[in-house]
């Protein structure tokens, strides 16, 4: 958080299969969340609030069964909240 990172979230993030926490709040990230992000099945915490991320939250979010913290406020997401989010325990 607060690292002055800029740019888009890389698709290669999906290669980090053991990643448990991702915190990149209050940076200059923009663009959509790549589908590869939803392959991080061990992710327990996702904190990407207060960036300039856009697009929709994919229905693929249902794959993140371990996700306990989902901070996305302060971005420019559009669309509806996927019902698959309810599948996360």
Which properties best describe this structure?
89 residues, mainly beta, four-stranded parallel beta sheet, 7 strands
What does this structure look like?
The chain has no helices and 7 strands. The chain has 89 residues and is mainly β. The model has no long low-confidence stretch (mean pLDDT 94). Helices cover 0% and strands 24% of the residues. The strands form 2 sheets. Strands 1-3-5-7 form a 4-stranded parallel β-sheet, with no helix packed on it. Strands 2-4-6 form a 3-stranded parallel β-sheet, with no helix packed on it.
How would you summarize the topology of this molecule?
Layout: E1 6-7, E2 21-23, E3 28-31, E4 45-47, E5 52-55, E6 69-71, E7 76-77
Parallel strand pairs: 1-3, 2-4, 3-5, 4-6, 5-7
Short note summarizing the structure:
With 89 residues, the chain is mainly beta. Helix content is 0%, strand content 24%.
Helix content: under 10%
The total of helices stands at: 0
| Order of strands, widest sheet | 1-3-5-7
Order of helices and strands: EEEEEEE
Oligomer: single chain
Radius of gyration: 12 Å
Q: Kindly, what is the distance between the CA atoms of the first and last residues, rounded to a whole number of angstroms?
A: 25 Å
Shape: globular
**Helix/strand/pairing category:** mainly beta
Largest sheet entry = 4 strands, parallel
Report the strand count.
7
Q: What is the percentage of strand-forming residues?
A: 15-25%
> Which residues sit in consecutive blocks of at least 5 with pLDDT less than 50?
none
Q: Mean pLDDT, as a whole number?
A: 94
């Amino acid at each position: 958080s607060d690292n002055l990172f800029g740019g888009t979230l890389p698709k290669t993030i999906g290669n980090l299969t053991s990643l448990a926490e991702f915190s990149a709040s209050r940076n200059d990230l923009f663009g959509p969340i790549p589908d590869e992000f939803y392959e991080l099945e061990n992710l327990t915490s996702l904190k990407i609030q207060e960036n300039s991320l856009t697009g929709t939250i994919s229905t693929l979010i249902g794959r993140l069964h371990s996700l306990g913290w989902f901070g996305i406020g302060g971005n420019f997401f559009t669309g509806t909240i996927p019902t698959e989010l309810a599948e996360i325990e």
